[in-house]
Design goal:
By secondary structure, the protein is α+β, with helices and mostly antiparallel strands. It is 37% helix and 26% strand. It has helices spanning 5-19, 26-32, 37-48; strands at residues 55-66, 77-88.
């Protein structure tokens, strides 16, 4: 029997409402309902773990700033970012 993400989500809500209050472990609850714990764990990590890389939107543009203490081998201008970065969270 294939277990869908929706099935696990429903079971997770049921566990949160009734299983947790009765002191039943997550492992016991899911396995007694026919869902191996490793399947639940994979779903949980995928659903509730934030991604390591997120999309973002950058507003503004860099400004040129002259640095008087630079060596002759380096460029004479450095870019200074005068902008804001906002993460875009997709659900």
């Amino acid at each position: 029997m294939a277990i869908s993400s929706k099935d696990i989500e429903i079971l997770w809500k049921r566990y949160s409402e009734e299983g947790c209050n009765r002191g039943i472990s997550v492992t016991q609850y899911f396995e007694s309902n026919g869902v191996p714990y490793h399947v639940f764990e994979k779903w949980y990590k995928k659903k509730f773990t934030q991604p390591a890389v997120v999309n973002c939107v950058v507003s503004g543009s860099p400004e040129a700033e002259t640095d008087k203490h630079e060596s002759p081998h380096e460029p004479t201008k450095k870019e200074k970012c005068n902008c804001s970065v906002k993460p875009v969270i997709a659900h």
